[in-house]
Design a protein that fits this description.
Shape: globular
Order of helices and strands: HEEEEEEEEHEEEEEEEEEHE
Structural class: alpha+beta
Number of strands: 18
Number of helices: 3
Helix content: 10-25%
Length: about 250
């Protein structure tokens, strides 16, 4: 009888220990990134809508694509988790691409979110790529110039030929257009759990490409690629293109 009681106590201890471990170390969770595109205070509409910059230039948009990559979450104590293989091609007019799912994130309370606009140099020079960064997506110039980080095309009566074609890229100094974005979560905490999927709702403002620290007039500049002007637009999209509109707790 004493022997049976001893076995019962041992088994109970092991069960309680496993339960405590499971509670202390819950499984990884998922974070969803939802992206809404606007032009200032108006929704982005393909081609038909006419927008006006603060300087008075008119424009329409018929293409907007860009890369978001290297997502990193940070806790209040400063520890970080960098999501591996996090490269996403966002097409403003493709609903599926406007929702990004980051999986297998270690459980925890995260107070900030960082990501890059563009594709980092290490990946650019590491050979043929697949998935979102496959050259078939027409967002790649070649190893020398790398990826097109952001491609915006449209029309404007102020442009010399009536067309806008901003293809921003470049990963080598001094013409490195890669920018890290750290939008404020407005005090929200991302509680990543196995049974909870918070969502961050981002707004991407096209108007910010032409305003911010480097105002752009279409009569002077209707297109660009790698170079000093691309750096100006990169500074613009770093300054205010991506903001957090709200956070869903679950």
């Amino acid at each position: 009888m004493k022997y049976c009681n001893l076995l019962f106590l041992i088994a109970a201890s092991l069960f309680m220990g496993c339960s405590a471990d499971n509670e202390a170390q819950p499984g990884p969770g998922t974070l969803t990134i939802e992206i809404e595109h606007v032009v200032g205070t108006e929704p982005l509409v393909v081609f038909d809508a006419i927008y006006h910059t603060p300087a008075g230039d008119e424009f329409t948009v018929w293409k907007l694509k860009y890369y978001l990559s290297n997502f990193t979450l940070r806790k209040a104590d400063g520890t970080t988790y960098k999501v591996p293989e996090s490269y996403y091609l966002v097409n403003a007019f493709d609903p599926e691409s406007r929702e990004i799912t980051l999986e297998n994130i270690p459980a925890g309370n995260y107070t900030s979110l960082d990501f890059m606009i563009g594709v980092d140099s290490a990946r650019t020079v590491s050979g043929v790529q697949t998935g979102p960064i496959d050259p078939e997506h027409e967002m790649y110039w070649g190893e020398e110039s790398g990826y097109v980080f952001l491609k915006m095309e449209g029309t404007s009566p102020q442009a010399p030929n009536g067309r806008l074609a901003f293809h921003v890229g470049g990963y080598q100094e001094p013409n490195n257009a890669l920018r890290t974005i750290s939008p404020s979560l407005h005090g929200a905490t991302l509680q990543i759990r196995q049974d909870r999927t918070p969502a961050v709702h981002l707004q991407a403002d096209v108007m910010s490409l032409f305003t911010g620290p480097n105002p752009i007039r279409f009569g002077d500049l209707a297109g660009m690629k790698v170079g000093p002007y691309a750096m100006k637009m990169a500074d613009n999209y770093a300054a205010g293109m991506m903001t957090v509109e709200h956070v869903h707790a679950n």
